[in-house]
Inverse folding.
């Protein structure tokens, strides 16, 4: 009878019991790794977040069973989680009672945690309390032991929830309940609240309203235009917060103004992504002239605003040697050229019907992003640069992990190689003799001869590869002409996908010959000196960095070709650490832990004013845009499809004719090159780099941002970088707990949005395929109609 | 079959042997497939039929013997090389690229007929662009051919079972193979679907100038569409010939059914 009853109960509460058990284990883990419960901001929130996630789960699973079940299960879950913590505290208490030094065994459990959870003030916590050295007696009587069952109601030991940006906190609440009871009550409340809200959400079918709403939104012209114009509107908001020359800002933000502006800047980027994505094939019944007119007018207006800022505020980003304060003319000219390029590109694309919305969104978003940096101060530029570098890294890793499915945990190695290559080639660090007199450059790289040689090599490489590419292109034209079209059945046996040895040798000879000729000409005409003397070695460093990290990518790729999944992860992780340790330990070559100092910025050293930091940001933005663009093209190509087939099933992909060696090595190499670009720009931003900058954490951070943003999705990666790098940088208090937030976010993402914040949409190619098929065979259209 | 003797066989297996430890999965197998034929391989479960296919498509390296494709040895080549030579296959348990749409799956099948390089794709060279468009059209037409054009943008995982089978065939056809290996294409289909699949296989051979090697358990299918049947048992060939010759071979009946029995013969002939 009683047993049946108990069974009934435990059945009804099964969800809550298991959730509570797991939550409790996670909480114990968090506490044992040293999350101080009374930390004034994030740590406690993350404990509560864990509980809330399980509450949401309960609400979701049991929503059909009714509110009562949901509530009781959630309460039980919170209670059980608390009980687990209670057990830990009881253990701590027992050990203390026996005079065992608890801190020695639970090394990480912070004093704060014990204080809050046991209700004993920190000062009284010592198992061996302070002894008066003269009398040999306890300073203040017998030590108080912790007591997990003690209940206190004072401010000192009460749980405190606090949250805010630098300065005054936005939110500060002292629960005034100390001891475990307060904690348990908090857990139960959180879990119940999460569960009930989820239940109510599902029961009220809020999702339906949302769908209805978004349906109405997409149908409504005003709403659609609002979405398309959001980046511009947000830019307007940003503009209002900024003083224009002598004019005071219209919108005054008090404390945290810079941070708030940065957040708006992030929102502009996010809305640009959303606007480009939600554009539909809609021309609004406008003629070609009207369409191009609207796009050109908006781009032109934005460029004019930008030029106004350049002249009004001297926000320049180009500074030749002769104008160390930045050249307004050149900067404005660059904006005009970029704007004109956008308009011309739109003019070409808008000829096709159905492109207006997307082209409008792209053109306005890009123009806004183009002029936005002009309004940022140095701190904001710095954060943006960091975000941009992480976008590059994320997009590079996205190729390896997101497209090709190769889990690479040593990705930071390529980043480091790019950074160090540039550093070696450019550092101005000197070596001093015993009299403190400089006796020469510490890293020979910046030496005239080496820079010259690197420049030479680069030019030669470029010329040679251009010649080879042109030759191959020609050869394939001829081949294609012979086979008439690429897709006819290939000749039986003896397929010739590559040129014969004779043709290859001819090509190589040609390439070497031309590059030697070009080199000789350059040398003879002293053109080289005119081209490179005086200019910063940034460009050379960039090219060299990309080449070095690309080669390293292939070198890592070769030994791990046969590895998959976990094994691949472990080996690449080792590779990343090896590279860092090499930089750390080969002191005579790399400077060891002292790193490489005095790395120049892309612009001449004497540049001052906004140009000194804006130039880098523009380079980073340009680089990320380029990488995003190339990634997008790669994804829709033969190579991209081979990658995703390989990700899905390696063996079957191979039997479809995909050369796995080639596919993997290209993925590694391209990913590594993108990281190399990021590394060079990183070195230029930091100006001093150390092996410690390239720890495993970086790989994990980048991987997290790819996963959280959405694997294989370019907007996802950009969003991931903003959410994981940009926002914590703004809310700097939390930055210390970044790894913790990563963890919590990852768990939350896996449960709530397993495919990422902005997952890659499934490509819908059929419409275009049908269009192309009809264009090739006009008879088909009629056939289909007749059917 | 005499008229073939002058021509080169599409596929020739000479004393092919594949062992797994002590187990001889395929032993001393001699087999010849002539152009434009539908040849079938049958045999009880575990007879080594799939292993034979895996040897042809390069998943396994044979321990002994030779495989010749139009007279060229292919044993020991990698699967991608073999696929590029013009041999395509489907699988007993469907293996599609789950996260890709139907159209993309077919596009992957075209892979070895395309020449685009990553650099070409990034710079979007005119030739790459042309090729890409041609591939898209071709993939779409193949989907129309197998009657899946409506589902072109559906993820492969979300397709119905029968559609997945047809998509797999479309993907195999995408590389314009000379030889198509079908591993139990009617597995898990009802009689109506099986009938349709049979018609489809015939159509493939006739319209696409293909040679087909087929593994099949459904005797009705085997007997009605095959030009030539080979019977395996414990990895060895026990009989070979036209459908009539094979189904009257007492060895086959015994091996297939475990015991010589009159009433089983009728079942073997394809009665339901
Ligand atoms: N990779 C392998 N390792 C070890 N043994 C294997 C392997 N693959 C197949 N075998 C064995 O080889 C024998 C032949 O298997 P195979 O899959 O070729 O049979 P089959 O004729 O295709 O059977 P079915 O009709 O069930 O598909 C079986 O005994 C199987 O267990
Ligand atoms: Mg089989």
């Amino acid at each position: 009878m009683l047993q049946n009853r108990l069974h009934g109960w435990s059945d009804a509460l099964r969800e809550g019991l298991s959730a509570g058990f797991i939550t409790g284990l996670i909480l114990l883990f968090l506490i044992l790794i040293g999350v101080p419960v009374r930390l004034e901001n994030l740590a406690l929130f993350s404990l509560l977040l864990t509980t809330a996630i399980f509450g949401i789960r309960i609400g979701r699973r049991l929503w059909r069973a009714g509110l009562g079940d949901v509530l009781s299960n959630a309460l039980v879950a919170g209670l059980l989680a608390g009980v687990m913590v209670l057990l830990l505290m009881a253990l701590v208490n027992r050990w203390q009672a026996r005079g065992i030094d608890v801190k020695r065994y639970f090394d990480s459990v912070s004093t704060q945690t014990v204080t809050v959870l046991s209700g004993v003030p920190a000062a009284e916590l010592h198992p061996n309390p302070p002894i008066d050295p003269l009398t040999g007696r306890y300073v203040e009587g017998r030590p108080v032991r912790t007591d997990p069952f003690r209940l206190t109601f004072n401010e000192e030991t009460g749980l405190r929830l606090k949250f805010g940006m630098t300065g005054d906190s936005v939110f500060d609440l002292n629960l005034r309940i100390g001891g475990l009871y307060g904690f348990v009550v908090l857990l139960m409340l959180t879990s119940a609240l999460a569960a009930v809200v989820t239940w109510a959400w599902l029961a009220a079918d809020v999702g339906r309203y949302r769908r209805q709403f978004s349906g109405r939104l997409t149908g409504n012209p005003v709403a659609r235009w609002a979405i398309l114009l959001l980046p511009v509107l947000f830019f307007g908001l940003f503009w209002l917060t900024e003083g224009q020359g002598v004019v005071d800002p219209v919108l005054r933000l008090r404390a945290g103004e810079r941070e708030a502006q940065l957040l708006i800047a992030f929102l502009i980027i996010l809305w640009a992504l959303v606007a480009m994505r939600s554009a539909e094939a809609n021309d609004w019944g406008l003629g070609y002239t009207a369409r191009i007119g609207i796009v050109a007018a908006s781009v032109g207006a934005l460029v004019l605003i930008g030029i106004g800022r350049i002249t009004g505020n001297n926000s320049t980003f180009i500074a030749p040697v002769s104008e160390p304060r930045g050249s307004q003319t050149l900067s404005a000219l660059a904006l005009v050229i970029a704007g004109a390029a956008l308009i011309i590109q739109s003019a070409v694309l808008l000829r096709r019907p159905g492109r207006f919305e997307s082209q409008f969104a792209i053109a306005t978003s890009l123009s806004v992003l183009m002029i936005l940096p002009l309004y940022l101060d140095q701190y904001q530029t710095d954060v943006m640069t960091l975000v941009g570098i992480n976008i590059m890294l994320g997009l590079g890793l996205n190729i390896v992990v997101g497209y090709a499915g190769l889990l690479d945990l040593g990705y930071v190695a390529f980043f480091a190689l790019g950074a160090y290559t540039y550093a070696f080639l450019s550092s101005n660090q000197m070596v001093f003799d015993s009299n403190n007199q400089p006796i020469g450059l510490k890293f020979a790289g910046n030496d005239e001869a080496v820079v010259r040689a690197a420049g030479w090599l680069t030019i030669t490489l470029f010329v040679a590869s251009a010649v080879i590419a042109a030759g191959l292109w020609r050869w394939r034209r001829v081949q294609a002409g012979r086979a008439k079209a690429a897709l006819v059945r290939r000749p039986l046996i003896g397929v010739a996908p590559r040129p014969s040895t004779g043709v290859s040798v001819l090509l190589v000879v040609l390439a070497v010959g031309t590059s030697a000729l070009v080199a000789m000409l350059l040398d003879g005409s002293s053109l080289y000196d005119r081209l490179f003397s005086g200019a910063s070695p940034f460009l050379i460093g960039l090219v060299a960095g990309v080449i070095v990290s690309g080669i390293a990518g292939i070198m890592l790729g070769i030994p791990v070709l046969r590895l998959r999944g976990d094994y691949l992860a472990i080996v690449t992780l080792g590779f990343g650490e090896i590279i860092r340790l090499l930089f750390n330990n080969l002191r005579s070559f790399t400077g060891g832990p002292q790193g490489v100092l005095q790395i120049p910025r892309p612009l001449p050293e004497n540049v001052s004013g906004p140009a000194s930091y804006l130039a880098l940001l523009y380079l980073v933005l340009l680089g990320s845009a380029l990488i995003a663009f190339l990634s997008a093209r790669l994804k829709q190509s033969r190579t991209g499809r081979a990658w995703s087939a390989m990700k899905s099933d390696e063996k079957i992909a191979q039997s479809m004719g995909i050369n796995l060696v080639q596919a993997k090595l290209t993925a590694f190499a391209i990913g590594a090159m993108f990281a190399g670009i990021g590394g060079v720009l990183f070195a230029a931003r930091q100006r001093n780099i150390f092996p410690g900058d390239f720890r495993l954490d970086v790989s994990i951070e980048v991987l997290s941002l790819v996963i959280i943003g959405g694997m294989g999705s370019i907007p996802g990666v950009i969003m991931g970088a903003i959410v994981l790098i940009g926002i914590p940088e703004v809310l700097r208090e939390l930055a210390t707990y970044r790894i913790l937030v990563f963890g919590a976010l990852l768990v939350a993402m896996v449960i709530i949005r397993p495919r990422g914040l902005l997952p890659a949409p499934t490509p819908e190619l059929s419409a275009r395929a049908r269009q192309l098929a009809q264009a090739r065979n006009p008879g088909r259209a009629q056939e289909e109609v007749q059917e | 079959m005499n008229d073939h003797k002058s021509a080169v066989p599409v596929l020739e297996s000479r004393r092919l042997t594949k062992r797994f430890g002590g187990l001889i999965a395929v032993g001393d197998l001699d087999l010849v497939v002539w152009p434009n034929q539908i040849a079938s391989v049958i045999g009880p479960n575990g007879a080594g039929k799939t292993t034979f296919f895996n040897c042809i498509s390069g998943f396994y390296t044979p321990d002994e013997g030779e495989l010749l494709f139009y007279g060229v040895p292919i044993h020991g080549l990698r699967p991608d090389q073999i696929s590029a030579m013009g041999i395509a296959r489907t699988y007993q348990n469907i293996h599609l690229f789950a996260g890709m749409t139907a159209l993309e799956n077919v596009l992957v099948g075209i892979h070895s007929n395309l020449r685009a390089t990553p650099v070409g794709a990034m710079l979007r060279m005119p030739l790459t662009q042309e090729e890409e468009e041609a591939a898209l059209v071709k993939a779409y037409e193949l989907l129309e051919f197998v009657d899946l054009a409506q589902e072109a943008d559906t993820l492969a995982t979300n397709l119905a079972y029968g559609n997945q089978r047809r998509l797999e065939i479309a993907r195999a056809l995408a590389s314009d193979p000379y030889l198509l290996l079908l591993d139990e294409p009617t597995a898990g289909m009802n009689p109506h679907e099986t009938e349709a699949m049979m018609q489809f296989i015939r159509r493939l051979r006739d319209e696409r100038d293909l040679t087909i090697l087929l593994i099949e358990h459904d005797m009705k299918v085997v007997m009605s569409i095959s030009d030539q049947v080979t019977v395996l048992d414990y990895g060895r060939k026990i009989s070979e010939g036209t459908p009539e010759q094979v189904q009257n071979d007492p060895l086959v009946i015994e091996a297939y059914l475990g015991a010589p029995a009159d009433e089983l013969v009728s079942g073997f002939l394809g009665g339901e």
